[in-house]
Structure formats: C-alpha cells, structure tokens
Amino acid sequence: MRLSAEQLPNFLARQENFRPVFFLSGEEPLQMMEAADVIRSSAYQLGYKEREILQVDSSFNWNSLLQSSCALSLFSEKKILDLRLSNATPGIKGSKVLRDYLSNPPPDKVLLIQTDKLDARSKNAAWVKALDDAGVMVQVWKLSPAQTLGWITKRLRQYHLQPTQDAVRFLSERIEGNLLAAAQEITKLQLLYGQGEIGLEQIQASVSDSSRFSIFDLSDAVMIGNGQKIQHVLHHLQQENVAIPLVLWTLSNLSRQLYNACFQLQQGINEATIVRQIPYPQQKNFKIALQRLKYNKDWPTVLAKNAEVDQLSKGLTEEGNKGMGRVWAALLELALLLSGVQLMSL
Predict the structure, then answer these.
(1) pLDDT digits (tens, 9 = 90+) for 302-326
(2) Which CATH number fits domain 145-209: 3.20.20.70, 1.20.1250.20, 2.40.50.40, 1.10.8.60?
(3) Which helix (H) or strand (E) holds 233?
(4) Beta bridge partners of 109
(5) The pTM is what?
(6) Distance between terminal CA atoms of the chain?
(7) Which of 25, 133, 289, 302 is buried most, with the most CB atoms less than 10 Å from its CB?
C-alpha cells in the first residue's frame, strides 16, 4: 500500500490499519522525520515500547536483522526494528534478507525502514515490491515552490496564526525549501506572538533576529567563495548551538543544486534557464558559484565529503567519537571544499 506523508496520520488513526512493515523514502528531512514519529507513536500505543536502531552501512551484517526479528524483548512483548539505509538500495544480500523477513514477519515486531529517495530502477526492484505488498510505503517528495507556500500556510494555521500572503511568501523565500528551518521559525513566531493575525513586518523582525538563519549567510558565503566569511559564520553557528543536521542540510542541499546545475550545463541547457530554478534571492550568488564550478572535475570528492560528514555527525566513525568539535571542523572542510577555497590559504 502506498500513501503520502499527509495521508499517514489519518490512516494510522485507526488501529486496524497498522501494518507489520513501514517503508519511508525521500529527500526532505522534516517530512521524513515527522512521518517516522507518527509511525513510532502509533506503534507505542499498540504496545511496541522498545526500539532497536539498525544503521546499514558497508560493514552491516544483514543476518543481524533476522537475529533481531527472532530475539525476545527484555522489557516488553513488542519491539520496533528501526532500519536505516545509508544508500537507497540494500544490495543483493540485503534484498534477499528483506524478502525472507517479509515472507513471514514476526508478530511481536514492526519493521520501520528509512532511506533516501529511490531512483527509477530501485522502484521496480523485488524488495521494494515486497515491501509494498506487505506493508505501507511512503515516498516523500521535495516540495515545489507553490507547495511550499501551501505547507507554510497550513503549518502557521496549525499554530493558530493567520498569516498574510506577503508574510508567507517572504518566509518561503527565506527558508529556500528547508522545511526544518521553516518549522523552527514558525514555532518561534507562535512563542513571540501567540495566536491571531501575523503580517510581513512581524516575520521580517523574527527572521532578522534569529541566529539560526545565519545558515543562509553560510550558503551565500559558500556561493561567492568567501573563505573568511565561511569561517566566521560557522563559528557563530557553533557558538549559538545551531543544530548540526540543519547546517549539514544547508551544505548538502547546495552541493546537490550546484552539481545538478553543472551537469545540466554539460548537457547543453542554457545557464539562465538553470538559474531560474533557484529561489530569486539566491540567483545572483548561485550564478557566481556556477561560473566558478562549472568546469570542476572534483565532484566525486565533494559528494563523498557530504557522506563522510553525515556519518561523522551520527557518530558512526572513529573520528565521530572525538566530539562535536570534530564535526564542526568537518563542516568547515566541506564548506571550503564546495566554495573552492583552500583551507591552508586562510
């Protein structure tokens, strides 16, 4: 069964709809997080009070999933197996194990699988079809600019705020598609203004006073290749305890945008057409970055660095055990690499 992220809460409101397997895939972190929270909350209400996280990487032993499915829970009768795929495919071994698991899912376990956006080939894979048949599959799509406007409006109203169209449009342009940043800002607006109407001036004042939105300063500094400003902004973000996933999302999203833009240029697509796909406030700086990076042949290194920092931030490497200072240093390395600035030259 396939559902959208919006349909999931109403579907799970009825206990008889609960399934032994849930599969989340997508590229928008907030919707993924909230969909997973809804599933875990529903499972908890049904007695699945324990949770085991299984992080799949190159060294993962797929037999551990089968072992966990058979193991008795220590403190409750039911358990959530939270399986997180680093890639959008489990490989040959993982595919077989998943199909074996799905052929006879244990009655005291619920399997929650989370992964990145599936490509066209993966959507037709046997393991995906098996998941679709056995449980609930939710694909989270990145919102279009128009959908983002609607999402922000709905979110504000959920917090009993009645926004003007100008206010919604400003916030949408400011967050650049980052729903996590939008959700944080909306929570702050509710704390500042309570309930009722909210206009452009109020949102402008809130955003300009919010240190977390220095992530946009970071994005700008990377695009224009200003190494000193990159260091300054990242130091500021670290001192303000801004969430590392938010900073990493900003850099990873910019990496994907620039990589895709460079690829489109190589395919002969007009630069103006490419730049128009970017939110208007960022177009000028994005064009500067594109001019600097369009002949870059080191994209594999940039993309690999994104993955490395992601693993480091989750404590999945030996380096990750050295504390958050090492993670912030890695974020600086990633930002400078993407900007084209050499760390030793600063």
Answers:
(1) 888 888 898 888 775 554 445 678 8
(2) 1.10.8.60
(3) helix 227-239
(4) 79
(5) 0.60
(6) 53
(7) 289
